[in-house]
Amino acid sequence: MEDVADEYLSIPAAETPSALTERSQIAELVREEIAKLPHDLKTVVLLFVYDNLSYAEIAVIMGCTQSRRNATLSCAETAHKEVGRDLLSR
């Protein structure tokens, strides 16, 4: 029994079963919230958050004009904040 306790206590806090489960649950909630976004906003959020692209790079990929890019990015920033708020309210 002591060996099991020593092994468990030697696991970094970020890798404990409960921490891994919590991280998995949060990731699922994020995926659910992102899935609710309209296609354009979802694309911007995914490219920005997961691919670490700049807003300028995203605009080029999406073929947006400057004004369209600014409007889309503004909406995406709002959506990104709303996803975070929704997750925190759960």
Task: Characterise this structure.
The chain is mainly α and 90 residues long. It has one domain: Winged helix-like DNA-binding domain superfamily/Winged helix DNA-binding domain (Arc Repressor Mutant, subunit A). The protein is 77% helix and 0% strand. The chain has helices spanning 2-9, 17-35, 39-49, 55-62, 66-88. Helix 2 (17-35) packs across helix 5 and helix 3 (39-49) crosses helix 5. The longest helix is centred in the C-terminal third of the chain and has 23 residues, at 66-88. The radius of gyration is 19 Å and the shape is elongated. The two termini are 37 Å apart. The model has no long low-confidence stretch (mean pLDDT 74).
Topology:
Elements: H1 2-9, H2 17-35, H3 39-49, H4 55-62, H5 66-88
Helix pairs in contact: 2-5, 3-5
Strand fraction band? under 5%
Quick one: CATH superfamily? Winged helix-like DNA-binding domain superfamily/Winged helix DNA-binding domain
- Summed up, the helix count is 5
CATH topology: Arc Repressor Mutant, subunit A
Order of helices and strands: HHHHH
Cα Rg: 19 Å
**Overall tally of domains:** 1
Shape, principal axes of CA atoms: elongated
Largest sheet: none
Overall CATH architecture: Orthogonal Bundle
Features:
5 helices, mainly alpha, 90 residues, single chain, elongated, Arc Repressor Mutant, subunit A
Short description:
With 90 residues, this protein is mainly alpha-helical. Helix content is 77%, strand content 0%. The two termini are 37 Å apart.
